[in-house]
Specification:
By secondary structure, the chain is an alpha+beta fold. Helix content is 51%, strand content 13%. It contains 5 helices and 3 strands; from the N terminus they run ααβαββαα. The protein has helices spanning 16-22, 26-38, 53-66, 84-90, 94-107; strands at residues 42-43, 69-74, 77-82. β2 (69-74) and β3 form a beta hairpin. The longest helix is centred in the middle third of the chain and has 14 residues, at 53-66.
Length: 108
């Protein structure tokens, strides 16, 4: 049995423009906020998105390919977690600012 491994950019390959593009969508911001608040690996099914499964898969892929999240297979599901250490090291304060702004928006 072979392990299924998803491609992720290395820390040095993460680019600000790709991260900003990934964070420019409200659904992806919701995923990032949820992951930031959970502080753990979360299966896709735990994050309720008001989109089809295929559209949700697209959003996760954009976040993963930009280097915002890490996805690993756990059985038949994918666990998602923020690449907080990488993002904080490359772009200090960006993730905290985005999550704080997303929280404000959701309470208005």
């Amino acid at each position: 049995m072979s392990a299924r491994i998803l491609d992720h950019p290395s820390t040095g390959e993460i680019r600000l423009e790709a991260v900003l593009h990934a964070l420019a969508d409200p659904m992806r911001l919701e995923i990032v906020r949820f992951l930031a608040e959970s502080g753990r690996g979360v299966p896709c099914s735990e994050i309720e998105l008001a989109v089809s499964k295929s559209t949700g898969t697209h959003h996760y892929r954009v976040l993963r390919e930009a280097g915002v999240i890490r996805q690993v297979y756990h059985g038949t599901s994918k666990l998602n977690s923020l690449r907080r250490d990488d993002l904080d090291g490359l772009f200090p304060g960006l993730l905290d600012s985005v999550v704080a702004a997303t929280r404000k928006r959701s309470t208005v």
